[in-house]
Amino acid sequence: MSYETVLYSSEGGVARIVMNRPEKRNALNHQLLDDLDAAFSQAEADREVRVVVLSGAGPSFSAGYDLAGSYYTSPPEPEGRWTLGNTLMTLRGIEARYQRIWNCPKPTIAQVQGHALAGGCYLQLLCDISVAAHDAQLGHPAVKMGGVSSMPLWQVALGLKKARYLLMTGRVIDGQEAERIGLVSLSVPREELEATVEGVVRDCLAVPFEGALQNKEALNTSLEIMGVGALFRYHGQMNALGRLRERGDDDGFNRFRGKG
Fold first, then answer.
1. In the chain, how many domains are there?
2. How far apart are the first and last CA of the chain?
3. pLDDT at 120 > cutoff 50
4. Backbone phi, then psi, for 35, in 5-degree steps?
5. 75 DSSP 8-state letter
6. Strand order through the sheet with 14-19
7. Can you tell me the mean pLDDT for 96-125?
8. Predicted local confidence at residue 256, as pLDDT
9. Domain of 144?
10. Is residue 223 included in any domain, yes or no?
11. Residue 1 located in a structural domain
12. Does residue 199 sit within a domain?
């Protein structure tokens, strides 16, 4: 299978998914979101694949959703504006894309350099293991505009105080600080990033395949029991509500609250 905005390869039990819009710092547009979804589906279905590595071509992992157009940022047709119905359905679709990565039954590893902001930071949060360069830049500066992140894993990964510190200020931190607070698994000098990821890949491959599948299933199911699956849906709903309010759709906002 070929992709327009993703480089996909599989060898030695490892599927490598490389976001390939380097001139846009791998901003997530419609095509890249579709290609990522399809690439993770391909890796999941391939019985030879035991580990999946997600990375970005060029200077950055991903600068986030493409403001010039994406499923997340562009009002859908035919309305051409956000409504109660299309916001909820749009965020349902975004949630499904998140869950495609989150529930991949095989170990997933994010290799992070440069910018990993907003939606780009979401991608590395969805992976099981993240290795970031010391000088990588991670965070969610878009919260400075107000509203609710569609990604529920911040407080799960970081705990209350650190997650709220980032989500209430919009501050961006480097890879070393991200490791210290638990936003990524490891941080290494930029020149050691690829070699470090390859070492993690080898360790994952050393685990018997079916045992690794069972482990991933148990880890994710434990979090489902704790309610993380419902958090994906709730954050999507609250993000949808924010779109109506931010765009001045008072009627839609009031209908959502049951006052219209």
1. 1
2. 48
3. yes
4. -65, -40
5. P
6. 6-11, 14-19, 51-56, 108-112, 129-133, 186-188
7. 98
8. 34
9. 6-194+205-256
10. yes
11. no
12. no
